[in-house]
């Protein structure tokens, strides 16, 4: 993992994804609107192909996709075809996530140089995050320093998964790519963003899931949502003002 991902600021990710969208517009002569044509941008700007394949999973692991960086290919896990079909936006966010690994995580310059004897990068696939294993991994992490068996099991479970820094950066990347700031701000100006029905309609328009949309709106400062509270406010100041009335 590149050390710089830990410090990759939101504005830098916004700059990169904006550049990719503008490159696509310049190349095709098409003005991008919602929903963003993520597959075409990934293919025509980043030069990545797509393929469906079975990706091995450890017990409790769910891997939706992977990146074959040497062959410039995003692999989508055909084991989860039904899940992709049942959850609108999941396939697009998975593609955006893997594109983020290629665009801001992988050192592409090294891929162009011959490898050293004994080093085979051709089959390298970057596996993704495994939610169900988190608790076990956390427990093993605390034990790993003093228990060799725990250390080896921890390494086995976490091998190939995203670090927290990677996951944060590429998730912000896919969010910014699927929902460019200028398009989301324009859309938000035309609706009441404090009404859930309007947000669900916007999510459908952008072809993302509602969680992805609300995270994006919060990150852009267009709404304020408290954890565990379904009431949407336009800002934290508005929430504080409402709270002071009671």
User: How would you characterize the largest beta sheet?
Assistant: 3 strands, mixed
- Please state the structural category: mainly alpha
Mean pLDDT rating = 80
Question: H/E series, N to C?
Answer: HHEEEHHHHHHHHHH
Number of domains: 2
Strand order of the largest sheet: 1-3-2
- Beta strand count: 3
Rg, nearest Å: 20 Å
Query: Portion of residues in helices?
Result: 40-55%
How large is the share of residues in beta strands? 5-15%
Quickly describe the structure.
The chain is mainly alpha-helical and 246 residues long. The protein is 52% helix and 6% strand.
What does this structure look like?
The protein is mainly alpha-helical. The chain folds into 2 domains: 3-178, no CATH class; 179-246. It is built from 12 helices and 3 strands. The protein has helices spanning 10-28, 38-44, 81-86, 90-105, 108-111, 134-144, 148-158, 164-178, 181-189, 196-206, 210-219, 236-244, and strands at 49-53, 65-68, 73-77. A 3-stranded mixed sheet has the order 1-3-2, covered by helices on one side. β2 and β3 form a beta hairpin. α1 (10-28) crosses α8.
């Amino acid at each position: 993992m590149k050390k710089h991902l830990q410090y990759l600021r939101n504005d830098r990710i916004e700059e990169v994804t904006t550049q990719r969208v503008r490159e696509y517009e310049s190349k095709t002569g098409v003005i991008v609107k919602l929903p963003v044509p993520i597959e075409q941008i990934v293919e025509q700007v980043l030069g990545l192909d797509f393929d469906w394949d079975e990706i091995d999973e450890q017990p409790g692991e769910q891997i939706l996709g992977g990146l074959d960086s040497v062959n410039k290919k995003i692999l989508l896990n055909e084991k989860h075809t039904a899940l992709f079909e049942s959850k609108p936006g999941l396939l697009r966010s998975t593609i955006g996530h893997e594109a983020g690994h290629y665009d801001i995580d992988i050192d592409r310059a090294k891929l162009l140089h011959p490898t050293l004897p004994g080093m085979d990068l051709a089959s390298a696939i970057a596996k993704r995050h495994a939610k169900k294993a988190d608790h076990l991994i956390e427990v093993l992490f605390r034990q790993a320093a003093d228990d060799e068996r725990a250390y080896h099991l921890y390494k086995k479970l976490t091998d190939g998964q995203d670090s927290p820094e990677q996951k944060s950066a590429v998730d912000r990347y896919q969010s910014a790519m699927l929902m460019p700031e200028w398009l989301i701000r324009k859309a938000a100006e035309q609706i009441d963003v404090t009404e859930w029905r309007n947000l669900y309609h916007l999510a459908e328009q952008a072809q993302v899931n509602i969680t992805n949309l609300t995270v994006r709106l919060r990150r852009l400062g267009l709404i304020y949502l408290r954890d565990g509270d379904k009431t949407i406010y336009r800002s934290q100041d508005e929430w504080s003002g409402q709270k002071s009335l009671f």
